[in-house]
Write a structure and sequence with these properties.
This protein is an alpha/beta fold. About 30% of the residues lie in helices and about 25% in strands. Strands 1, 4, 5, 6, 13, 14, 15 and 16 form an 8-stranded mixed sheet that branches. The protein has a 6-stranded mixed sheet with strand order 7-8-9-10-12-11. α4 links the parallel β4 and β5. α7 runs parallel beside α8. The longest helix is centred in the first third of the chain and has 34 residues. It is globular and about 80 Å long.
Length: about 375
């Protein structure tokens, strides 16, 4: 009997022990079950970041024709065959110094003094006019004009070699087809650009057959070929056009036709010369057209005041997401001063003028700026 009571008592104790342990066992398995579940990281929603296209800009200032009549180079002569033009451009140097690109049109050929310096109608100008304008700050020079052939092939080859010694980008005259067809891609502030120059006339002077590279004579076929060659390599295309009719303030139909054609090819900026007087600045489509900057420097005082008043245009060229725009367009008149004896030539921005230099200059400025801002009828 004692054995049975002991067994019964042992079972009761075992049951009590199991009951006491049961909560701990259940808690253990419950914890391990929970901890075995894979905890997925909470997914955070993020808004896409909008990346704006980078905007690139370069600045450009432009003046017109450097027509070096004999009165100008005689005034610049230091002694013998040495010339110094720099003082003539003192005030212009201050105006252009902060721009990246500084353009002018070398109207008269720099053909070499060995051929003899000469005046109208077949010019030849001293080397110093080119080197002194580069020293003034100019670094973009058009060479295709109606006077490029004035000293024939020899003069063109001399000017091409001369400009290779200068710190400037030129276009319009070459020493070979290879040189002409190798259109340079230039870069400024991250903007790739091409600079092309053409003339519609050589004053009847023939370009030797087989040597058409000497001067870029405009034709739709040539221009299209040139632009097609480089348009996918550059952001901006600048074309200097020697066109139109002399001494008229209104663009003639041929200028408007060429401007429209160049715009259709993708040209962004057209810089016009040859009329020797100022013409309007206007857009055709998205192309900015400066129809004529007039004369930068000349000795045409006897032909009327409009021949010695030119235009200086400064602007910013912007490239953003493949689109070219212009802003900060600053248009200012310039005046070529000299004495009645054709001495002391100096170019004045109108901002530097007073009535002692050019009488009634304020009224003259208003009259000519009205021409600049005239809307062109197409």
């Amino acid at each position: 009997m004692k054995k049975k009571r002991k067994l019964k008592k042992g079972r009761v104790l075992l049951v009590i022990l199991l009951l006491l342990l049961l909560p701990s066992v259940l808690l253990y398995f419950s914890f391990n079950k929970k901890s075995s579940k894979k905890i997925e990281p909470k997914e955070e929603k993020t808004e896409p970041i909008e990346v704006k296209p980078e905007k690139k800009s370069m600045s450009l200032i432009m003046v017109g024709d450097a027509v070096i009549h004999n009165g100008i180079y005689l005034d610049a002569r230091v002694s013998g065959d040495t010339y110094d033009f720099k003082d003539m451009f003192t005030y212009i140097k201050d105006e252009i110094k902060d721009y990246d690109l500084k353009y002018y049109n070398q109207e008269t050929i720099i053909g070499g003094k060995n051929l003899g310096l000469s005046n109208y109608p077949r010019f030849n100008s001293p080397d110093e006019i080119g080197s002194d304008l580069v020293a003034t700050g100019f670094n973009l020079v058009s060479l295709a004009t109606n006077h490029t052939m004035d000293k024939n092939e020899e003069g063109v080859l001399y000017t091409v070699d001369f400009w290779k010694t200068q710190n400037a980008i030129t276009s319009g005259a070459y020493s070979s087809f290879e040189e002409r067809d190798n259109i340079k891609v230039n870069e400024q502030n991250g903007i790739k650009y091409a600079f092309l120059s053409y003339t519609t006339s050589t004053n009847g002077l023939p370009v030797p057959s087989g040597k058409e590279y000497l001067v870029n004579v405009y034709s739709e076929e040539k221009v299209k070929e040139d632009i097609e060659k480089i348009k996918d390599k550059v952001d901006v295309i600048i074309v200097a056009m020697h066109w139109g009719e002399e001494y008229t303030h209104t663009p003639v139909q041929s200028e408007k036709d060429i401007a429209g054609y160049l715009s259709s090819l993708g040209v962004n900026l057209i810089i016009g010369s040859h009329p020797h007087v100022i013409q309007p600045v206007d857009y055709i489509n998205d192309t900015l057209v400066i129809y004529s900057l007039g004369n930068f420097i000349s000795a045409q005082h006897s032909l009327g005041i409009d021949k010695i008043i030119g235009l200086m245009v400064g602007l910013d060229i912007n490239v953003e997401d493949g689109k070219v725009t212009f802003d900060n367009i600053d248009k200012q008149l310039i005046y070529t001063y000299c004495t009645s004896a054709y001495k002391d030539f100096k170019i004045y921005p109108f901002s530097k003028l007073d009535d002692s230099i050019l009488n009634n200059y304020k009224s003259i400025e208003e009259e000519y700026m009205n021409i600049v801002n005239t809307k062109v009828e197409y």
